[in-house]
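Final report, Chapter 2: Outcomes

The project's central promise was a pipeline that accepts a single protein chain and returns its three-dimensional structure in a standardized token representation, suitable for archiving and comparison. That pipeline is now operational. To close this chapter, we reproduce one record exactly as it appears in the project archive, with the input sequence first and the structure output second.
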Amino acid sequence: MPHPYRFAVYQRNRRAVLEASGYRCTYCGGRASTADHVVPLALGGSHDLGNLVACCRRCNSQRGARLTNDRKATGRIGQRSRRW
């Protein structure tokens, strides 16, 4: 099976997302060179335009295969439970 990032649909959508964002990272505003999956492929995401955002390599590698707000949600739940 070929590598999932070598599919023509991913490469085409990656270019479209980067151009639409002006090559700016969605998360930090730095220079974007990759397209990040909002719902990771490992969690059932796809290469659709609606599931891709422009991202720099640093932010993309830090995020890994998590949903965008996993870390934020975990922090909020912990704070709420401590207040009760």
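Archive annotation: The helical segments are 8-20, 57-63, 70-83.
This record, like all others produced under the grant, will remain available to the consortium after the project formally closes.
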